[in-house]
Specification:
This protein is mostly helical and 289 residues long. 72% of the residues lie in helices and 3% in strands. α7 runs antiparallel to α11 (226-232).
Length: 289
């Protein structure tokens, strides 16, 4: 950051400019926080990424003794990996679509309609996140066991739907509340009906934030492990379950690192692309910003 002092037309030569330019003092506190945050967030990612390509890396060497793609070939040629990937994508897509069909109309109702018990019902949706998740899943598993849903595709879909309520209710409610009412009133003044106002005015304004909610829900559901483990196993093995089994059962940590990079890179690129398309304010509006 630089700070320029007022400059008269008579001393505007490059030499004069260089003389009067004063450098602002460095914010060492901010730099320290930035370095600390980078170490906490980026260092584990970098180490795991290096492990994915390290064929030999023995203590006390700081860097791997040999790099290669051997573990990538061993991992990505396994049938169970691809079966788990397609199963995870199927479950995640199904959960996201059903959650949107249920939660988006509910979010619009919470944001725009006034009905008895509105606040209580809204808190009931969000209170699911206030309970210890593992205990809730165990309690649900006892119910699913009597309904023969344990170890089934739809059992995992139903339990993972519960985990989407926070994002698919809270964020869309803020999105619908943030729509400019003056535009809707102007459309009604010129004769537009309720549906025309919704499709032409309300939905286009809320759509970026709704898409942000869909994206967050998709990514979180894809990587969900507790519910998939308790309800899905042994018949439903999602991609995170395969990765955990690799980490627990294989002596080489490279197998888990390969799956980590294999899953993390597409999600990271998807989040970057979505942020670029939707704009940074879409996430902020969804959180009430």
């Amino acid at each position: 950051m630089t700070d320029l002092a007022p400059l008269s037309p008579f001393d505007a030569s490059p030499t004069a400019v260089e003389r009067i330019v004063r450098r602002a003092p460095l914010d060492w506190t901010g730099i320290a926080f930035l370095v600390g945050l980078a170490v906490v967030i980026l260092l584990p990612l970098i180490v795991t990424a290096v492990w994915a390509f390290a064929e030999i890396w023995r203590f006390p060497a700081i860097l791997p003794q040999r790099m290669g793609l051997g573990y990538w070939q061993d991992t990505l040629t396994r049938n169970d990996v691809w079966q788990a990937l397609w199963l995870s994508l199927s479950i995640t897509t199904t959960v996201t679509v059903i959650s949107a069909a249920i939660c988006f109309p509910a979010a619009y109702a919470f944001a725009r309609l006034d009905f008895p018990g509105r606040n209580l019902l809204f808190l009931a949706f969000l209170s699911v996140q206030a309970f210890p998740k593992f205990g809730l899943i165990v309690a649900t598993a006892t119910i699913f066991l009597t309904l023969h849903l344990v170890g089934t595709f739809w059992g995992v879909v139903l339990i993972q739907l519960v985990g989407t309520l926070l994002y698919m209710i809270w964020i869309p409610v803020s999105a619908f509340q943030g729509v400019d009412r003056r535009l809707e009133e102007a459309a009604r003044d010129v004769g537009a009906g309720p549906m025309r106002v919704f499709w032409s005015i309300t939905l286009p304004q809320a759509l970026p934030t709704l898409f942000a909610a869909l994206l967050i829900t998709f990514v979180n559901t894809f990587y969900e492990t507790d519910a998939a483990w308790l309800i899905g196993l042994p018949n439903v093995r999602t991609m995170p379950m395969v990765m955990i089994s690799f980490i627990n059962n294989a002596l080489e940590v490279q197998y888990g690192a390969v799956l980590f990079v294999f899953l993390w890179v597409p999600s990271f690129l998807l989040m970057l692309a979505a942020r670029r398309v939707m704009g940074a304010d879409a996430f902020a509006k969804g959180l009430g910003g």
